[in-house]
Structure formats: structure tokens, C-alpha cells
């Protein structure tokens, strides 16, 4: 088994300041979406065997999101709601372990091919709840852990009885709805996680079967990425309308491969995951930290959700739908998997860009809807590809997935390593690392000034790891007012390793200038998508919103522009003046969700 370099803190260990944007967004979605949804109605798809395409994913997605958000807020009502929902779902489970929205005669590929995809999310939801219960100290927790463990084991056993290459079973690559097995193979992630709880050899053997099958009937996606192939070409047959480079599902398979590597230590699996990250950064992930589009190369199932060399095409005006929120969240989760494995700040850099832009901008102010396809220019977008009525609530896949992305941010901001606490994001709040605490007050993103006070009464002789952002200039660290003498270690690339000892009352001051930068598009197959400029403050994309400034005028291009801070009331993160225009952070732009706040992020350039 391979050990991670970074580890997640226990639920309840992190509390961000009440005025922090992520705390506000998390509580908005908790008091909005999660408080309103009726979990019994989500379970009805299973209870009534409705056999409706992919509708069974919603229970698992909402439970997983609820678990992550409860781990942050600790609100008792949410835990009780989760507990009741789990009890209700498990009352539906058959004695043979069955949990499916499809009738038995259509399993394991009922619900129009989404049967295993739905079971994947049931497992992930139950696993999220299991993790929460592990950290609880209530008198019912031990029995609850046993009940959930047994349910997970039985469901996986039931699935193994139906899926495989043996007579009477259906091969994994013969299942799924449009992507020749990619969607079903993504069950690999919970399969490995269930094995880590049960330690049953047959569970690991099934994971090995999934990996060996290769994820796709057209070609082995793991081997293709390992060989250096571009993700947008994987599984292609030369017909753009039959392309299957579905961004969300493909990354989900590689999340599972990461979990499999942790168990087996097979080096080529780790390398395949790292290759995928590098290719996506090079070819697909946009300035907003997401990817996928409805063209110009791949036009297959899942309009707007396929890899399309989106990084080069991100300003192409022919693209209407792009950067599905499910892709944003899954990209963040994949980066978190690799960050845990590698301890390299580059993966935290990627998560930060996604979180501060595509993720938080997608949440509607009432906390009830996540934008399916965020835009660089225009207005906020109510278009959805996939949703179901749950009672009176119209629930889309992205609205079910978005809260998960929010919930993990505090526990990426602060992590643990083998040599001491890790600070990835400079966010105000408190984090507990065992007995030792860090009380953080930060001016980010207005500046890089951050003060950390050591508390908890503990004496710690190790180190504190501080991420050095790629946009930081003149990065300095003081310990009790004196230079901290930090170093960089090759195994923790991009981190200032501040040596101890640390004790109650000690102060660590971090300071750096935040780089303002303009980037220029090039390489698009549509010339109208080239030569456009985008302004970025650190990781944050800046936009012009017509409520506050002209959005039609061209802007001067300077790779390193001089911007002046401007106090525009609507801006929740950062606002500035440049080129004769007022700019606000992307997540604040478009805030009315209609034409009154039309915005521009890709800008025409003067001369």
C-alpha cells in the first residue's frame, strides 16, 4: 500500500471566518438546497423501481455533498437528516444486497444503461456518511458504522454477482449508456474504498478486473493516457458526432485508478494519472479552472461536456456550452487525489483557480441552483442538460454535484503532512492539527498579508508547510518577527517549510505581493477567438459588468498591467481599475442572473 504525503484533517477541524466567501457559500447551499430537498423522494427512484435514466445518482450525490458540508459546519439538524435518509434507503435494500432503480430482469444495465453509475453514487454517498459517523461520539455511532459497512459490502457483492467475464454475468464494457463502458467503470473509486473498509479479497479482485478491462470497449483509456495521448482523442472513431471523450466520466475513472494505486502501488497507474493531469492542464483546463465544450472537435453525446482542446478554444465564439460544473468539481477532486499522493503545490494551484472562479460563480445567490455551463462573456446561464423533478424541485446533476466542491475547499485549504501542518490557501479562520491550532487572519485576495497564531497549548517540534503561490512575488515568512529561515524540500515542491519548534502564542507572518497578469488567446481554429485578453488578479479572473462600467470598449494589453484597487460595493473578493474601466471578480459578475449584469471576461484589445 502506498502512503500519501498529505492527509485530510478530521471533520470539525476547520472553521473559516464568517466573512470568508467559502463559508458564506457553504452555508448558503446548506440552508438552501440541502435544507429543502426531501431525501425520501430521492430514494423513491429506488423504492419504486422507476427505471428512469440516471435518476438514481441524485441520492448518492446529495448524501456525499451533505456529508462534506456537515463535516465543515457540524450542524446537528443536517446529521439527523442524513441519518434518517440512510435508514430509509437501507430499508429498501434487498436481502441479497440489491439497491437498483431497475427491475432485476434489466440489471446490471437497466435505467437505460445507468444502473452501475447509479450504484457508484449510492456507494459514494454511503461512504461519505460512513466517514462522518466515524468521527462522531454519539451512542449510536458504532452500530451505525456496522450497518453501513454491511450495506456497502452487500451491495458490492451483489454487483460482483452480476458483472464480470464469467458465464451468466455481463462484462463491464458491455454496460453504460453512450461511452462504451467509461461511465460504468467509474464505479472503480467506491469499489476500492469499500475494499479498504471490508478487506475482502473478492472486492479487490473486482477492482483489478475493472482496471484490467481498461474502461472503454473502443480502447483502453488508461493505456492510452499512459502512452501520452490527448484526452480529447481517446475512444474516438473519426466521427465527431460519435466521440466519447466525456470529461466528467473519464476523470472519474482516473480517480478510481488513483485509489487503486494506493492499494497496489503499481507505478504505471500512478503515471497514467499524472499524465492525465498534465494533458488536461496543457489542452483543456481554462482560465476559470474547468473544461469541456460543445465543439469544435468532439460533438458526441453530452453536448457541452466533452474534451475539445478547450484551453485553446476557450474564447471561440462558436462555442455555446462549456465547462460543466460536474467537470469543475470532478477536476478539483482529481487534483485533490494527486495532491494527497504527491505533496506538490501545483495541484493545489489548480484547485484554487477552480474554486475561486468556476465553482463559486456557479452558485445562484439563493443557494438552490448551480449553473450547468458557466460563461466567460454574457449572462449567467439557466440551460441544463440533465435534471429531474424531485417533488416540486427541479434538480440537475450539477446542482447535486456543486455542493460537494464547496464542502471540500476548507479541508484542502488546511491539511496535514508527515512532517507537519500544511497551509494551501490563505483563508481567515481556524484549523486544528491534533492539539495544535492555527488562528489565521488573512487579507487575501486584496494582498498576501497573513498572520497565523499558534494555539492549543501544544509544543510541536516539527514543521509548518506554507504554499508559495505561482502568482506570489517577494514571498516572506517571519516567525515571531524574525526571518523564519524556511527551506524548500524536493518531496514537497512549492512549499516553504518553516522549521519548529512551535508553541502557544507564537506568531507566523506571511507576506507576498499578488501578481496581476493579462493573458492573450491564441491557437483557436476560429480567428475570432484569438487575440482576446483576460485580466487575472492572482488566481482570480476579473470581469467587466455593465452595472458598473462599459463592457463594449477595447482594453489595452499589457502582460503585467498596473491595476489600482477600487472599492466597488458589489465585489465580494476583489475589484480594481485598469485601462479606464472598473473590474470585479468573476464570481461577482453577472450577479443579477439576467441582462442587467451582462459581463465580459475575454476582452477585445486596442491596436
Describe this structure in words.
The chain has 607 residues and is α+β, with helices and mostly antiparallel strands. The protein has four domains: 37-198; 218-414, no CATH class; 418-513, Immunoglobulin-like (Sandwich), CATH 2.60.40; 516-600, no CATH class. Helix content is 38%, strand content 17%. It contains 17 helices and 22 strands. The chain has helices at 21-36, 39-47, 57-73, 76-92, 110-113, 115-134, 141-160, 182-185, 188-198, 201-213, 221-226, 247-264, 267-283, 310-313, 325-342, 345-362, 397-413, and strands at 6-7, 14-16, 387-390, 393-396, 414-417, 420-423, 429-433, 436-442, 450-455, 463-467, 472-479, 482-483, 487-489, 492-499, 507-514, 516-520, 533-537, 540-545, 564-565, 575-578, 581-585, 599-600. The strands form four sheets. Strands 2-7-8-9-15-11-12 form a seven-stranded antiparallel sheet, with no helix packed on it. Strands 16, 17, 18, 19, 20, 21 and 22 form a seven-stranded antiparallel sheet that branches. Strands 1-5-6-10-14-13 form a six-stranded mixed sheet. A hairpin with a 2-residue loop joins β11 and β12. α1 runs antiparallel to α17 (397-413). The longest helix is centred in the N-terminal third of the chain and has 20 residues, at 115-134. The mean pLDDT is 97.
Summarize the structure.
This protein has 607 residues and is α+β, with helices and mostly antiparallel strands.
Keyword list:
607 residues, alpha+beta, Immunoglobulin-like, 4 domains, seven-stranded antiparallel beta sheet, 17 helices
